[in-house]
Amino acid sequence: MGGRLDTGRLYAALDAERESRGLSWRQLAAEAGVSASLVSRMGNGHRPDLDGFIALVQWLGMPAETFMVWPEGRPDGRRRPSLEARLAPLLRAEEELSEADQQHVLDVVGLTMRHIRAKNKELK
After folding, report:
1. Could you tell me the maximum CA-CA distance found in the chain, to the nearest angstrom?
2. Closest by Cα among 91, 19, 22, 14 to 53
């Protein structure tokens, strides 16, 4: 079975970002390049069309997969990507960080996650 969109999660992320920027829903829609009626319908639980979904996740600057759910587990039994893999594109998009800074953050996160994973294995 294919992935499904968690419209509620997308709408909540849009609302949080909208509030943090001090925007109205109409302003958000205009910035994202979608109709105000699209975001209004989403508030009532309706799914956006594909182009609208793409525009909204691009406006958020978040990976589309953030808003997908697999009711029967991930396809092909794949596990969720590591935290490091999910952080890398976010860090690369952060203009304040140099490449060295980005790598440093990834190294610290990687070291921390290896420690946590080893500790969790010991507890099992």
Report:
1. 52
2. 14
Domain region containing 90? 81-123
Cα(first)–Cα(last) distance of the chain, in Å? 32
Name which residue leads in pLDDT, 69 or 43.
43
Q: How confident is the model at residue 124 (pLDDT cuts 50, 70, 90)?
A: confident
pLDDT at 24: 96
DSSP state, 77?
Answer: G
Asked whether the CA dihedral 46, 63, 110, 73 is positive or negative, the reply is positive
Interacting residues of 84 by C-beta distance below 8 A, sequence separation 6+: 106, 109, 110, 113
- Asked if residue 44 and residue 29 are part of one domain, the reply reads yes
